[in-house]
Specification:
By secondary structure, the protein is mainly alpha-helical. It contains 9 helices and no strands.
């Protein structure tokens, strides 16, 4: 019994530890990520340069750590805004009767059917590629999906017996929504957030890889992959390191979502 409990804690702790390390790892960077030294280019791993150096003599390990701060910073900030606005608006909208506002439901379904990549292309075309553009585009797409999820879950909960009992006992709308309903749908919300984090990491890295990066002076994993393509045969490690960190971060968020899903299955 204790061994099973330890495994469950370990499965939850490891992904969280990986995410925290990738986010605050820049604090432990051994070198300045922008410092160039062409006389030290393509060095192998050492104590001074754990992952070696790139074509400009920059420390690859330091750039990986700073890239994690940028990528996960956008992800976590975007998901925070999404969670606050999406939960609040979704709960308020979902308090009405299901199907009451057919026009709004149809509009919400139509807008959420647009893939996030379309928002990015539109916003990048208007404002150019930068961190604020990426943040606004991803947040706008996710907020609409969060509103739809919370709205649907709230409508389902409103039909359950415990809510009818709470209404009969004179509970206020605020108490119904934020004391009774919200805690019961929070697990679905957290699962959606975990999976959305993985999607955001892949989207940011993918756009940077094809040249729509976050800015010329911004380090991120996708941009490192793009720069390393020209040296993929001579120095394949320059491609491997960013891919490994992208994989670990996306896997960590997916594992957290998987653990929540398993808990739901076991509770059922």
């Amino acid at each position: 019994m204790k061994q099973d409990k330890f495994k469950k804690i370990l499965w939850a702790a490891l992904p969280i530890a990986v995410i925290i390390f990738c986010f605050i790892g820049f604090l432990f960077a051994p070198n300045a990520p922008y410092k160039t030294d062409v006389t030290s280019k393509f060095l192998d791993g050492s104590i001074q340069y754990p992952f070696g150096t790139d074509e400009l003599g920059r420390c690859v390990f330091s750039r990986i750590l700073y890239g994690g701060r940028v990528t996960l910073g956008i992800v976590l900030l975007g998901l925070t805004i999404t969670a606050i606005l999406g939960i609040f608006l979704g709960v308020l909208i979902g308090q009405g009767k299901s199907g009451k506002n057919v026009l709004f439901d149809s509009l919400l379904n139509a807008v959420t059917a647009i893939p996030p990549i379309a928002y990015l292309i539109i916003f990048i075309g208007i404002w150019g590629n930068s961190i604020p553009t990426m943040l606004v585009a991803l947040t706008a797409s996710l907020i609409l999906r969060m509103i739809k999820l919370v709205k649907t879950q709230t409508e389902i909960e409103f039909e359950k017996a415990y809510i009818l009992c709470a209404v009969a006992s004179g509970a206020s709308k605020f108490r119904l929504l934020f004391i009774h309903i919200l805690p019961n749908i929070m697990r679905e919300i957290v699962r959606f957030i975990c999976l959305s984090c993985s999607d955001m990491i892949l989207t940011i890295s993918g756009f940077s890889f094809i040249g729509l990066n976050l800015g010329d002076d911004v380090i991120d994993w996708g941009m490192m992959l793009s720069n390393a393509r020209s040296f993929s045969i001579a120095r394949p490690a320059l491609l491997v390191y960013p891919i490994v960190f992208i994989f670990l971060c996306t896997l960590s968020f997916n594992l957290l979502g998987y653990r929540l899903e398993r808990r739901d299955t076991q509770d059922a």
